[in-house]
Amino acid sequence: MFQLNKDEKLIEKALAGSQRSWVSLVKRYEGLVYNYCLRMTFNRSDAMDLMQEVFLATYRNLPSYRGQNQFKGWMMRIAANKTTDFLRSRGRNPLHHAGEVTEESYHSPEQHHAGSHHQDPAEEYKMAKNNQQIKQVLDKLPEEQKLVVELKFFQHFTFDEISHQTGTSINTVKTRLYAALTKLKGYSEIQNVM
Amino acid sequence: MLCDHQLVIDHINDFIEDKLSVELKQQVSSCIEQCEDCQATYRQCLQLYQMSHEWQQQEVPEWHRTRYAVRPPVKQNSWLNWASMATSSLAILMVVFQLEVNTGDQGLTISFGGNQAESKIENMVEQQLASYKKTQEKLFEVKLKTALEQQDNRTKLRLANWIEKNRDERQQDIKFVMTGWQSQRYEDLKNVDQRFAYLADNQIENNQAINQLIQSVGDDGSEQQPNDM
Question: Which chain A residues are Cβ-neighbours of B70 within 8 angstroms?
């Protein structure tokens, strides 16, 4: 509740023109959005572009935010729409970029800078590998199924919230999730055989 | 036993996180134990759930968070706000009380209620009507003068044409009369000449007759005179 009230106050001040409030609001959610974009685009540069688009759209639509829902859910709806537009507009097939991203995630200086200062190289490598595996798993799914998995398992939204954010019915969301699970089941079986 | 797959799909996340009620948890657990599909769903969900926790959060690279987003706040001084509010209030009061400020022959006059405006409007209307009347009169005079001048010019022009035409006719008449008179005079002179010639002939004849008579008388005298002598 305190979190929500703080969001509301920051939004109110940002709408009044306070840059500091807007920056505070962005800093609260930019990690969430950036990692979401990273999992959806498999590319740091694209994730950065997409995140900026999401926050720009969020700011532009801020006057229409009524506060009836959680700000996070409202913003993630924008993020979902922007992600869909982004991937469609670029005509991007994430399959072709999974390898690049994997390399990038190992050797990019950003990766070194990004939050692993206090871990030893072995731990760092293990975590990077985890991210790579997650990307590879998500990479097997079509965009709409990947979006549902992302929102359900990584963002922990309810079916009702996911339905609201993606603009589809709850049954469609469940069907997509079930299809994604079925697809991943087949992928896991192949991985186990190999 | 028929398994409710939908029940598992609906509550699998809460089941994994142990957030379900005891009764619902038993139902889901029962489905998972007895149904292979639900077991597979559970395993996949559990795997994804674990994966979501294994994800190493990436720090956001430094970026310009306010580059396109925030408009600079419009700062207004407090006295300006008060001044604008006072001005607005004054304007509203002026409208409500129908404040009128007029300048005329009597100087600056301030009144409330809007009566002055009506009389002023009437005066303005009368002035406008009088001005319009004067303008129309002047316009009428100018038009009348122009029409008269045009009429006069037309009359003069017509008279000049008539005079010119009449002069030609009179000259022709005079020529005709003169020609007639001259021919008549010529005839008269011719008659007079004839008469004179006739008279002259008569005179000559008379003279001859007189001479003959005289001679004859002379002859008779000479013959008688010697006798008388």
Answer: 14, 17-19, 22, 59
Query: Is the CB of A55 less than 8 angstroms away from the CB of B47?
Result: no
Q: Which of A15, A64, A38 is nearest to A131 (CA)?
A: A38
Judge whether A39 and A135 are in contact, CB under 8 Å. yes
B6 and A CB contact within 8 Å = yes
pLDDT at B51: 84
CB–CB contact B44 A114 (8 Å) = no
**Which residues in B lie closer than 8 A to residue A115 (C-beta atoms)?**
56-59
User: A30: which 2 tokens?
Assistant: 């930019």
Interface confidence (ipTM) of the complex: 0.71
- Give one DSSP letter per residue of chain B, joined into a string: ----HHHHHHHHHHHHTT-S-HHHHHHHHHHHHH-HHHHHHHHHHHHHHHHHHH--PPPPPP--TTSSSPPPP----HHHHHHHHHHHHHHHHHHHTT-EEEEETTEEEEESSSHHHHHHHHHHHHHHHHHHHHHHHHHHHHHHHHHHHHHHHHHHHHHHHHHHHHHHHHHHHHHHHHHHHHHHHHHHHHHHHHHHHHHHHHHHHHHHHHHHHHHHHHHHHHHHHHHH-
Q: Write the residue in B9, B52, B66 that is nearest to A154 by C-beta.
A: B52
Question: What pTM did the predictor assign?
Answer: 0.53
At B57-70, the pLDDT tens digits run: 888 888 888 776 66
Residue B36 near chain A (CB below 8 Å) = no
**Contact call for A16 and B73, based on CB within 8 A:** yes
